Amino acid sequence: MQGQLVAVHPAFDEAFDAFAPKEVHGQPKARQTWAVEQMMLAAKASSNLGLKAHVTFSGALAWPYVYPWPQRPQGLIETAFAELARRWTPILDAFDAEGCDVCYEIHPGEDIFDGATFEMFVDAVKGHKRACINYDPSHFVLMQLDYLAFIDIYHQRIKAFHVKDAEFNPDGRQGVYSGYQPWLRRAGRFRSLGDGQVDFGGIFSKLAGYDYGSWAVLEWECCLKHPEDGAKEGAPFIADHIIRVTEKAFDDFAGGDVDKTMIRSMLGLGRR
Question: I need a surface site. Which of 9, 13, 163, 262 has the fewest CB within 10 A?
Fold first, then answer.
């Protein structure tokens, strides 16, 4: 949430004041200064704790203009991302000095809300190696983004993982935007692990295939189930899905060394 306050559009000033100390409420510049200081301290705290990945939000300057109506003036989005990069580059440098990645949660309401916007941000920070991803498939379900293909594209930058379930059930009244309805009545809504539509078997297989070595954290935000039950069921759900990667392929040829003579014989090539 402190990362969220690094960049706040004025339309959300009052709403986001709740995430900051009272002494900076109503003072956007002071609130931003506080947020940046907190992120700098978080870099040191991560180092002290031996952590290699820190999760955050990017904040948002362009989000009110996410839908292209009315038409956006040329340069609006580019200017927003240039400013976002200007604010985040010193923070990324601070985390780099502590050997820790900054993992932006790809999330609606942030300027980094899908793969395309993440790429725009990485370009704006000149490919900074600490600009990474906190992977959360629940938001991709609600946005109707292919969350398995996302891993194929961005696996090198995925350094954190929120294990969170969701479902999307559009009908004749609602689609992606869900008509301002409360969570229980939304077409897209979050669920406890195993109760939604996310293919976690596919996700854990993809991450294992790419040798993902960071953490998998249960994030509970269910519109129905009690959080204690969600935690009680969710922790073993994650443990059961973690794949211990085999060190041998089932079709390793008897585990032996390469026998070039045998191979040429099998191909009918004879001996040299």
Answer: 262
Residue 105, SS3 per DSSP? strand
Is omega for the bond preceding 90 within 30 degrees of 0, making it cis? no
Per-residue pLDDT reduced to its tens digit, 140-152: 999 999 999 999 9
The answer to whether residue 272 sits within a structural domain is no
Q: Which domain holds residue 213?
A: 4-266
In the numeric block, which tokens belong to residue 10? 């004025």
| Crossing angle of the two packed helices 200-209 and 227-241, in degrees rounded to 10 | 40
Which tokens go with 40?
């700098």
| Domain assignment present for 216 | yes
CA distances from 94 to 13, 70, 121 (A): 26, 38, 18
pLDDT at 255: 61
160: amino acid identity, one letter: A
Which two tokens mark 260?
A: 């070039």
Q: Predicted confidence band at 78 (pLDDT cuts at 50, 70, 90)? A: very high
Question: CATH number of the domain that 234 lies in?
Answer: 3.20.20.150
CB 187 within 8 A of CB 178: yes
Q: What secondary structure does DSSP assign to 198-237, as a single string?
A: --HHHHHHHHHHTT--S-EEE----SSS-HHHHHHHHHHH
Least confident span in 97-111, 124-138, 246-260? 246-260
> Does residue 126 lie within any of the structural domains?
yes
Q: Number of folded domains in the chain?
A: 1
pTM of this prediction?
Answer: 0.94
